Amino acid sequence: MIEAIDLRKEYGGFTAVDDLSFTVEPGQVLGFLGPNGAGKSTTMKMLTGFLAPTAGTARINGHDIGSDSLAARRCMGYLPEGAPSYGEMTVGAFLDFVARAREIDNPAAARGAAVERLALGGVLHQSIETLSKGFRRRVGLAQAILHDPQVLILDEPTDGLDPNQKHEVRRLIEDMSSDKIIVISTHILEEVEAVCNRVMVIAHGRMLADDTPAGMVARSRYHNAVTLVLDAPEQAASVLSELPQVRKAEIRDGELTVFPASEGLLPAVSRVVAERGWDVAELRLEAGRFDEVFREITKGEAA
Ligand code: ADP
């Protein structure tokens, strides 16, 4: 379990993380979201013991990251933002070095497993600095999971990866999620919906939302709205506005969206479409739009 207790970081007079408290339980994949400069990396660095908090503390499986740092770090893997240092080392030598530093019991087996999971077999003898950004990211992930930690803290894990590699890393996160605690920071909302079962939004180092992805999406004004693609949307808008189930109709980018005043919007709209014989290219019930919710929550919070 991760416990963040009133975590605070000030750089000079500037407060980057402002008394943040939260806990993360096993089985949770927490997506840590926020605009650039929100304090995500700073929080992750404090959770992993790379940065001392100005005030507050964090505990990993009960071990205080300040006073019991070695025990806390043993149960945690961390992928920092950017690429691993030690660029002149080969991938194999780097992973061996990390295995020794972590005092892993069977380093060869651990290295073999990480290399296989991240498909690094072909670049073991290549120096890290000569690798593509995607490969460097995978080397970073390999060192994070080398000791099979129970807690994984991943700062922008898919940054710099191509779509196939992104997909692979998301699959890896899903694979590992059943018995681990995973915290990922990302600015890709679609990634949060794909792999996370909890979302935290921060800005200016303060918590703005803590919810499930479905809960976040349901905050959208589009939640349970119905969107239609058809000829003459203006005419359809005025007809549908008469329905008691419709609160409002809006046309954007040629698409007509009607917002619910009550339950039963979709069947009511479908009935009108059938009665009028409209030629509808598309008719969909909206779950909600994550990007719109994110913008709404962080509005006016730009760093
Ligand atoms: P995020 O990861 O959400 O983009 P960061 O945690 O990197 O945000 O940064 C939070 C804020 O703290 C930003 O305004 C950033 O400029 C500032 N900051 C980060 N590191 C330092 C530092 N070493 N010295 C001064 N300010 C910093």
Brief summary:
With 303 residues, the chain is of the alpha/beta class. The chain has two domains: 2-217, Rossmann fold; 226-286, 2-Layer Sandwich (Alpha-Beta Plaits). The chain has eleven helices and 14 strands.
- Give the CA-CA distance, first to last residue: 30 Å
Largest sheet: 6 strands, mixed
The neighbouring-strand order within the major sheet is 6-7-8-3-9-10
Q: Approximately what portion of the residues adopt beta-strand conformation?
A: 25-35%
Count of strand segments: 14
For the record, the count of structural domains works out to: 2
Low-confidence stretches at least 5 residues in length (pLDDT < 50)?
none
The helix content is 25-40%
Would you tell me the overall average pLDDT? 93
Q: What is the molecular shape? A: elongated
Query: Given the helix and strand composition, which structural class is it?
Result: alpha/beta
